[in-house]
Amino acid sequence: MKRFFSIVALVATFIVIGSCNQNKVDPKNPYGLDIVNTYNSYLESVAQDPDMELIDLETFIPNVVLDIRYATKNNFTGVAIYTQPKAYARRPTAEALLKVQNDLAKQGLGIKIFDAYRPYAGTLYFYEVYHDTTFVASPRSGSNHNRGFAIDLTLINLETGEELEMPTTFDSFTKEAALEYPDLPENILANRAILVNTMVSNGFTTYKDEWWHFNYSKERDKYKIIDIPFEKFSGK
C-alpha cells in the first residue's frame, strides 16, 4: 500500500511539474505568436518566397535619407531601442518606396525614413512604456513594422536636405498628428497632401492617427512577425 501511494505521489509530482512547464511564459513571446526569430528560419522563408526578403532601403533607394530615431535616445522612450540605424522592408514594399522616391524627385523632393522593419522586441518594450494602442501597437497581435511592410517617413527638399514642414514632429502623440486634422496652415496641409497622395498612388495605405505612418500590403497574414536584430541582416 505504501508503494502504491508513493507511485501516486510521484505521478502527481510529474503532472504538477508538467503543468508548470506548459504554463511558463516566454518573455520574448508572451502571447504565443508565430514569430520568425532565427536568421536561418528567415532565410528559409526567403528561399520559399522572394517577397519575404528584407531589403536595405539605404542602398536600394537613391538619395533616401535615414533618421532612425529608435537607434538614438531621440524618441518617446528616451532610450536607444535599436542596435543600428538601419531601415529594412520586405521586397514589395521596398520596390513601391523606390517608385515613391522617383515620383517625388520630379518635384525636387525625396523621402526621409524614421522607421521601417522593427524587431518584435521593440514592440514589447514600446507597450511597456506607453499603453495607448492609438500610437503604440499591441504586442498581442504585433505591429506591421514587425512584419516588414510599414514605413514611418516624411518629405525633404532634395537640394537642401531640409524637411518639409508637417503637422507635427515624428511620434507626436497628439490630435494634431491625425491624418485629417484640419486646423493647420495652408503650406503644411499642402505638404501633407503631397506625402499622402504620392504614397497612396503607389499602393500604400494610411493610418488615420499618424500622418507619417504607411502600410504597403493588405496581406497581413502572408508576412510573419520577425524578431531578429539588425546586425544579423547587415552582417556587422
Folded structure, characterized:
With 236 residues, this protein is of the alpha/beta class. The protein has a single domain (26-234), classed as Muramoyl-pentapeptide Carboxypeptidase, domain 2 (2-Layer Sandwich). Helix content is 36%, strand content 15%. It is built from 8 helices and 9 strands. It has helices at 2-23, 39-48, 57-60, 91-105, 120-129, 144-147, 186-201, 230-234; strands spanning 35-36, 54-56, 65-66, 88-90, 109-115, 150-157, 205-207, 210-215, 225-226. Strands 3-5-6-8-7 form a 5-stranded mixed beta sheet. Strand 7 and strand 8 form a beta hairpin. The radius of gyration is 22 Å and the shape is globular.
Distance between the termini: 65 Å
In the predicted model, the low-confidence regions spanning at least 5 consecutive residues are 1-21
Question: How many domains?
Answer: 1
Count of beta strands = 9
| Average pLDDT metric | 89
Helix content, binned percent: 25-40%
Sheet having the most strands:
5 strands, mixed
At the fold tier of CATH, the topology name is: Muramoyl-pentapeptide Carboxypeptidase, domain 2
Number of helices: 8
**Arrangement of strands in the largest sheet:** 3-5-6-8-7
What is the compact description of this entry?
This protein has helices at 2-23, 39-48, 57-60, 91-105, 120-129, 144-147, 186-201, 230-234, and strands spanning 35-36, 54-56, 65-66, 88-90, 109-115, 150-157, 205-207, 210-215, 225-226. It is α/β, with parallel strands linked by helices.
